[in-house]
Amino acid sequence: MILELNFETILFLALGSITVLTAISVVLQKNPVISAISLVFTFFSLAGVYGLMGAIFIATMQVLVYAGAIMVLVVFVLMLLSQRGDQLVNFYERPFRVLGLFFLVFSFALALSQSLLTGIPRSLEITKGVAKTDQSSAYQYPIQGDTGEIAKGNVASVGASTYLDYALPFEMISILLLIAVIGAVILAKKKLIPQEEIKDNTL
Amino acid sequence: MNPTLSGVPVEYYLGLASILFSIGVLGVLVRKNAVVIFMSVELILNSVNLVFVTFSKALATISGEVIVFFVMAIAAAEAAVGLALVIAIFRQKKSSNVDELQNLRW
């Protein structure tokens, strides 16, 4: 297959190579904190790939849930475990390294925003991005009922499908999250009662 | 089925997903730190999400993206419980090395 180097393919190759490199860095780095930072970059570049595909809702969820919530949890646990905190470099002693890192992060953010702009379908055909063709109109989701409404766009289609077709799994997910939160609190809390005072006859 | 998504062939997305999955499996097998193993599991879940979104876009059905949303919720639950387990084990063993956990061995 001949590689056709259009703008989207170059964006995909850039984001995909960042994804693979940072994923390898997650596995191979000795310091778990650097692994966590690499994992944040993996999640962001995957969000860029989702945006390139036009899955705007999933890209947003990727940044919010994975790069936001889960990574904060991981870094917090790493802080509690206090593993090799002394190895963190003081970045201000190396100005050129700081500038290089800033440049890398800036170009990364530029690639992310470009991929989002490419993925969002535009109504005007002259603007950059995918024109509203058969591909974007294929996601219009029919909302059942008397009104004959149609959910247009990615987020509206995902929302309509979630609350119409997948309403029961959605509610079950909420119960699962509640149980997980209770279980996490019970597992992670310190035992307030001393060990001798526990007289449990059931065990 | 669309052969390309935004001008990129579908096989590229699937190839990226398979590479990510392999790296995640490698991390689970190689690393000893429980938190890093946990992060590798997140990599595996992300690669599966990528496959879901790719086929959802290629087949023009919205169900795949809804299922990715559910996978993310389950990953969040797994994160909460798994990291609480790591903290509980660290409190007893003073270590998060999975090779030192041999309580269930007989």
Give a brief description.
Chain A has 203 residues and is an all-alpha fold. Chain A contains seven helices and two strands.
General description of the model:
- The complex is a heterodimer of chains A (203) and B (106).
- With 203 residues, chain A is mainly alpha-helical.
- Chain A folds into two domains: 7-83 and 90-133, Four Helix Bundle (Hemerythrin (Met), subunit A); 139-191, no CATH class.
- Helices cover 65% and strands 2% of the residues of chain A.
- Chain A contains seven helices and two strands; from the N terminus they run H-H-H-H-H-E-E-H-H.
- Chain A has helices spanning 7-28, 32-53, 56-81, 95-119, 134-137, 154-164, 167-188, and strands at residues 141-142, 150-151.
- In chain A, strands 1-2 form a two-stranded antiparallel ribbon.
- In chain A, strand 1 (141-142) and strand 2 (150-151) form a beta hairpin.
- The longest helix of chain A is centred in the middle third of the chain and has 26 residues, at 56-81.
- In chain B, a hairpin with a 2-residue loop joins strand 1 (4-5) and strand 2 (8-9).
- Chain B is elongated.
- Chain B has a two-stranded antiparallel sheet.
- With 106 residues, chain B is mainly α.
- Chain B has one domain (4-97): Helix Hairpins.
- Helix content of chain B is 74%, strand content 4%.
- Chains A and B meet through helix 1, helix 2, helix 3, helix 6 and helix 7 of A and strand 2, helix 1, helix 2 and helix 3 of B.
Per CATH, the architecture of chain B is Orthogonal Bundle
CATH class of the largest domain in chain A: Mainly Alpha
SS-based class of chain B = mainly alpha
Provide the gyration radius of chain B in Å.
18 Å
Number of domains of chain A: 2
Report the average pLDDT across residues of chain A: 78
Number of strands of chain A: 2
CATH architecture term of the largest domain in chain A: Up-down Bundle
Query: In percent terms, what proportion of residues of chain B is strand?
Result: under 5%
Give the biggest beta sheet of chain B. 2 strands, antiparallel
- Beta-strand portion of chain A reads under 5%
Assembly classification: heterodimer
Share of helix among residues of chain B? over 70%
Biggest β-sheet of chain A: count, sense, barrel? 2 strands, antiparallel
